[in-house]
Amino acid sequence: MLSRKTLKLIGCGNYCRSCILTSNNCKTLTSVKFGTSRSSSLHCPLALTFSKLRYQKAGMCSGFQIGRNCSSKSQNRPVVTTTMDEEELKHFQALAKSWWDETGDFEALHAMNKLRVPFIRDGLVDQNDIVESDGLPLKDLTIVDVGSGGGILSEPLARLGAFVIGLDPVEESTTIAQLHLKEDPRVQCRVKYINGSVEDLASTESEKFDAVVASEVVEHVADLVSFVESCCKLLKPGGSLFITTMNKTVLSKSLAVFAAEKVFKIVPEGTHDWEKFVPPEDLKVILENNNMDVKMIHGMLYLPVFREWKWVKDTSINYALHAVKIDPTDVADDRL
Ligand SMILES: C[S@@+](CC[C@H](N)C(=O)[O-])C[C@H]1O[C@@H](n2cnc3c(N)ncnc32)[C@H](O)[C@@H]1O
Question: Which of 25, 140, 323, 325 has the most CB atoms lying inside 10 A of its own CB?
């Protein structure tokens, strides 16, 4: 079990007044990893069951290191690997240093923020009937950014007031993401990065979050159905899931894979495996099987010459989706 002293190291300052994580020194925070399962109460959104998380400096194995399970210290810990594709994770491990190079390997993801950040903000504002007054429309909402990489999307969501858990199985990425937080004091205490898998988080933090975001991730997972199921499980009833991904069409094979990787070099070669792309109709069925109501599907198009994304009607290459977890109490009310 973590000592109180260790817990102080991972405290989240002002947002944790009522919990045992009372340190205001969030500069000492590093990315945290999952440890053993243990029940705990959630005092503040970012105090996310810290009794189950181990401070990295303690030198514990996470159970999620790429390509192998961990040594003796984690022997009793369940290692769940269902959604993680080892080759994919190695690919992102190799690219981890480039996350914050805005004209480098992840340029298209940086550019996508112009569409996806407002998409998520507006979806949450509508869904939660938020009346904004202070420039922080997502104030007090808790979001899990699944597959957060270097934090390109986690940070702007935190700047809108949300508490964001950035979750990624690649340790190099969560480390880079954590370091980058230092550059903006406004987000330092609103974002926590966790090195781990969505299925593990979902096994202990069911129905805890207002929103889950999986942007450009589902096309990289080993088991789409389990991945989506875990994302949905994390949501409170009425919570929102936002996904951006690629459709599985002839056009996406020629443009999003061939042209993007070999001609325009928008993303490094080998980034995408077309076989894993997901038609929106299939994603909708998986979501409906998880008690989700799909509210919106929008097409997106990248214009390499302008290095910009545009909303388009056509969903045959890229698309963004917003779904909401059906609240059983609303269904019961409707029946009255
Ligand atoms: C294309 S990047 C997107 C990063 C981030 N969402 C963004 O848009 O800026 C895909 C990310 O998904 C992560 N990833 C791959 N498989 C995953 C899985 N099974 N569960 C969670 N994240 C995964 C990778 O490590 C990588 O950081």
Answer: 323
- State the Cα–Cα distance between residues 139 and 141, nearest whole angstrom: 6
Name the residue at shortest CA distance from atom 11 of ligand 1.
Answer: 147
Q: What is the pTM of this model?
A: 0.81
Spatial distance between the Cα atoms of 283 and 163, rounded to a whole number of angstroms:
27
- Please indicate whether residue 199, judged by its CB atom, sits closer than 6 Å to ligand 1: no
Closest residue by CA, ligand 1 atom 13: 147
Q: How many residues does the chain have?
A: 336
Amino acid making up residue 107: E
Token output for 180? 């980058």
Contact 143, 165 (CB under 8 A): yes
Instruction: Return the CA Rg of the chain.
Output: 19
Q: 250: which residues sit within 8 A by CB, 6+ positions away?
A: none
Burial of 328 (0-12, 13-18, 19+ CB in 10 A): exposed
CATH topology of domain 77-335: Rossmann fold (3.40.50)
According to DSSP, the β-strands at 209-215 and 235-246 are parallel
By alpha-carbon position, which residue is closest to atom 5 of ligand 1? Answer: 148
Q: Is 191 helix (H, G, I), strand (E, B) or coil?
A: strand
Distance between CA atoms of 206 and 280, rounded to whole angstroms?
25
How far apart CA 136 and CA 81 sit, in angstroms, is 36
Q: Is 57 helix (H, G, I), strand (E, B) or coil?
A: helix
Sorted by where each begins, the domain ranges of the chain are 77-335
pLDDT by residue for the chain (336 residues), tens only, comes to: 333 333 333 333 333 322 222 233 333 333 445 433 333 333 344 544 433 333 332 222 233 333 233 333 344 544 445 799 999 999 999 999 999 999 999 999 999 999 999 999 999 999 999 997 788 999 989 999 999 999 999 999 999 999 999 999 999 999 999 999 999 998 999 999 999 999 999 999 999 999 999 999 999 999 999 999 999 999 999 999 999 999 999 998 888 777 788 787 888 888 888 989 999 999 999 999 999 999 999 999 999 889 999 999 999 999 999 999 999 888 767 666
